[in-house]
Amino acid sequence: MQSNQTGRLFLAYWPDPACQKSFSKLAKQLSLRNARLIKPENIHLTLVFLGHVDEKTLPQLTRSLETIGTEPIELVCDQLGWWQRSQVIWIAPASVPDNLLILVDKLNSTAQGCGLKVDERPYSPHITLARKVRQPPVRPEFKPVTWFLRDWVLVRSETLPEGARYTPIWSREQGFIGQQN
């Protein structure tokens, strides 16, 4: 990573331990062959992918993000799906709460106001459970996972030989978490 880059960043909600356990347990129930289950500590709900953010832009971005208020959002994850092209199994809400869509719009506008390019496609909230899934799984009966989204974080994504590593680096409540680099 170049010294003037913070790495690939995104904004996301991180589940509490109980939800993390529920998502991980559901992924294991799918009995997927040769698939790569998402590590429990990497399970999250992406809000906005920011890409590479220059170190000079990061303070402006976090100052702008501090102004975005947030209220708890109830997310009921009750649909399992498979994307053949990307070979991903996911869980998502059948009904997306309006306040989640409003938050994502605010986060996108804030990022754009800081000169960052964001995805123009409509937001489709989902939690990735497994990758490299070559065929659709038999869908088990499962209890929907209710997740109360409370505080989103700014996350650094690193691609390593053993898989992705996601590290929260900033939150509205704590400011910068650990070291920035």
Give me the Rg, rounded.
17 Å
Which range best describes the helical content: under 10%, 10-25%, 25-40%, 40-55%, 55-70% or over 70%?
10-25%
Looking at CATH, the homologous superfamily is Cyclic phosphodiesterase
Class from secondary-structure proportions: alpha+beta
Biggest sheet descriptor: 5 strands, antiparallel
Detail the poorly predicted runs: none
Trace the largest sheet across and list its strands: 3-1-9-10-11
Overall tally of domains:
1
Mean pLDDT rating: 90
For the termini, the CA-CA separation is 10 Å
What is the highest CATH level, the class? Answer: Alpha Beta
Order of helices and strands: EHEEHEEEHEEEEE
Can you tell me about this structure?
Helices cover 21% and strands 36% of the residues. With 181 residues, the protein is α+β, with helices and mostly antiparallel strands. It has one domain (5-176): Cyclic phosphodiesterase (Cyclic Phosphodiesterase, Chain: A, Alpha-Beta Complex). The strands form 3 sheets. It has a 5-stranded antiparallel beta sheet, with helices on one face. It has a 4-stranded antiparallel beta sheet with strand order 2-7-6-5, covered by helices on one side. Strands 4-8 form a two-stranded antiparallel sheet. β9 (152-160) and β10 form a beta hairpin. The termini are close together.
